[in-house]
Amino acid sequence: MARLWVPHRMVYVADHHQPDHTDCPFCEAPKRSDEDALIVARGETAYVLLNLFPYNNGHMLVCPYRHVSLYDEATREEVAEVAALTQVAMRVAREVMGCQGFNIGMNQGEIAGAGVAAHLHQHIVPRWAADSNFFPIIAKTKALPQLLGDVRASFAAAWPHP
Questions:
Q1: Binding site membership for substrate: which residues?
Q2: Residue limits of the HIT domain (predicted)?
Q3: In CATH, which of 3.30.470.20, 1.20.120.450, 3.40.50.1370, 3.30.428.10 is domain 18-156?
């Protein structure tokens, strides 16, 4: 098995401060405008926003409004809406960006690598056949072809409204 050593990622693992509900970015985002908070869509119990530090172009997060840290602490309604919003986000990303696949998942707890372990969130990372290169490893830089505000606007415009 080949291994890529990425010591620049230690900042996400080594920072032991986890926000509580008073300084949580996922509790604060819904209080701001969609454009300012990079929110793509709002549901009843959960919402979708762009990751401020994306792994790839179009990297979205689905978060419940309620400050809950683990998946098994979420209500049935929250779990159902996170799943439904994830499906819509995938469809929108394919329509807007023509992505060919996705990485979807949740890191539960600090030990599992969650950057904000105190507030449940699911990652939706669009992927393309040739979206990886040496830049993130050698230069500690990820080349993203679009500004976050432009991506948010295109996703929000394509998001179906009931």
A1: 51, 113-116, 123
A2: 25-134
A3: 3.30.428.10
